[in-house]
Design goal:
CATH architecture: 3-Layer(aba) Sandwich
Radius of gyration: 19 Å
Largest sheet: 6 strands, mixed
Helix content: 25-40%
Structural class: alpha/beta
CATH class: Alpha Beta
Strand order of the largest sheet: 4-5-9-10-11-13
Low-confidence stretches: none
Number of domains: 1
Number of strands: 13
Length: 258
């Protein structure tokens, strides 16, 4: 019975849904090459899968599927007043991926999206084009990893490297990549661009163990952030959300001391 229970769920990304309009897109084919055993299913629109009724976030996080699609309409959005602009007058965000491989209990994505499956918008060039149009008018502070953890998905999408290369070409562009990832082996392959800020979300280990499922431990995140700092990358440390727990003062004091 133990073996039966362990094998009940399909492997992560065992099924990949692809919009017909992006089937031949180079990024689509590049991603599909990484999953030769996956069942690939053509769909008319990603919402046919992503927005179905009666989906369970909890169950889907045990066996997430991948959806490859094109993002249409508005591609850059003004940053909300409750989010940190860090003094930048032209604060925007974009969503080139929806949902996350991590499963933090407090995450707003659980209430924002009807599905826990991950949507990758492969038409990144269209987002770049809209950003360039805005850059002709004013500088831009752009958060690109609000609705996912791009660094955690880098092995699949390569989007962090693409964003770094794009930002390097525009002196009046500054981007933030928010992450809980701790994969240091990516560091040598990512461009050091002054306009790209890697923002590590840090929590006490007790909070990580209780609420931030599948995420790296605090020591691993700190080690990755430290290596990036020593390698010359702009790094920001983020202490949000701050979660109340018994003896919270001790836990957060220990976090700051590390």
């Amino acid at each position: 019975m133990k073996n039966l229970k362990e094998g009940y769920f399909n492997p992560v990304f065992s099924h990949i849904y692809v919009e017909k309009t992006v089937w031949d897109h180079p990024r689509t084919q590049k991603i599909l090459e990484k999953f030769p055993s996956a069942a690939v299913i053509a769909v008319d629109h990603y919402k046919d899968v992503f927005c179905r009724s009666r989906q369970s976030h909890m169950l889907q996080h045990r066996s997430q599927n991948l959806i490859l699609a094109a993002k249409c309409g508005t591609l850059l959005y003004k940053g909300a007043p409750v989010c940190q602009s860090f003094g930048n007058s032209y604060f925007y965000y974009t969503s080139c991926v929806m949902n996350c491989i991590f499963d933090c209990e407090y995450c707003y994505l659980k209430g924002m999206y009807p599905s826990a499956n991950i949507v990758v918008f492969v038409n990144l060039e269209d987002i770049f084009e809209e950003a360039e149009q805005r850059l002709k008018c004013h500088p831009l502070y752009l958060c690109v990893s609000y609705d996912t953890d791009l660094l955690a998905l880098e092995q699949i999408t390569g989007y962090v490297r693409e964003w770094c290369a794009f930002t390097e070409k525009h002196e009046n562009l500054k981007i933030e990549i928010r992450t809980k990832c701790a994969k240091k082996h990516f560091v040598p392959y990512i461009r050091k661009v002054p306009g790209v800020i890697f923002a590590f979300t840090l929590s006490p280990q007790a909070v990580i163990e209780a609420y931030e499922h599948y995420t790296p431990a605090l020591k691993e995140r700190l080690s990755c952030a430290a290596e990036m700092i020593m390698s010359g990358y702009p790094v920001r440390l983020c202490f949000d959300p701050m979660v109340y727990l018994p003896d919270w003062r001790r836990h957060y004091t220990e976090l700051l001391e590390q």
